Amino acid sequence: MTDKNTEYTIATSSLEETRRLGERLGKLLKDGDIICLHGELGAGKTTFTQGIAKGMNVAKAFIASPTFVIANEYKGRLALYHIDLYRLNNIAEIEDIGLSEYLKGEGVTVIEWAEKAEGLLLEERLSVYLENLGGDKRSLTFEATGKRYEEIVQGLR
Q1: Cβ neighbours for 50, distance < 8 A, ≥ 6 positions apart
Q2: Please, where are the H alpha helices in 29-80?
Q3: CA–CA distance, 94 with 139 (Å, rounded to integer)
Q4: In this structure, are residues 79 and 73 in contact, taking their beta carbons and an 8 Å threshold?
Q5: Chain-centre distance of CA 5, in angstroms?
Q6: Which residues have a Cβ under 8 Å from the Cβ of 51 and sit 6 or more positions away?
Q7: Sequence-ordered list of residues with C-beta below 8 angstroms from that of 74, at least 6 positions apart, any chain
Q8: Of 129, 123, 130, which is closest to residue 145 (Cα–Cα)?
């Protein structure tokens, strides 16, 4: 475990609890924030993003994984860019979708399978590691890189 200001782990026991944790995060987010989601298939990345969207007052009731379209944009308190890199195989494909433009733009960028873009991501970001503990139970570890993201982690405690 690293510095208490930069890392926070919490377990959820239902999908709704995972969404509510995402909602808490969504309420803390500001323009330019980058959330990188990591976890195996079924770890809860999209469920967590649904909560983020709710916390950002996104009107759309159902946030789906953008696996086939790669990126979805939603309007709420801020723009939410939900990007899924699962189907992309290399950095060139990721560059082709304009990831750097999303990262430099206004709004909040949430990236599923963020590890695939490691060389393109900004150093300062919030990484969230989701792990399926069986059934609907999840472990989420928030890892902050940069002062802004340390503030977010403190806000989640």
Answers
A1: 19, 22, 62, 63
A2: 45-55
A3: 28
A4: yes
A5: 19
A6: 18, 19, 20, 21, 22, 23, 24, 25, 26
A7: 53, 56, 58, 60, 63, 80, 82
A8: 123
Question: How many angstroms separate the CA atoms of 80 and 26, rounded?
Answer: 10
Going by their DSSP bridges, the two strands 7-12 and 79-84 should be labelled as unpaired
Chain-centre distance of CA 146, in angstroms? 16
**DSSP 3-state of 130:** strand
CB atoms within 10 A of CB 10: 14
pLDDT digits (tens, 9 = 90+) for 44-99: 999 999 999 999 999 765 666 655 557 888 888 999 999 999 888 778 888 877 78
Is the distance from CB of 36 to CB of 116 less than 8 angstroms?
no
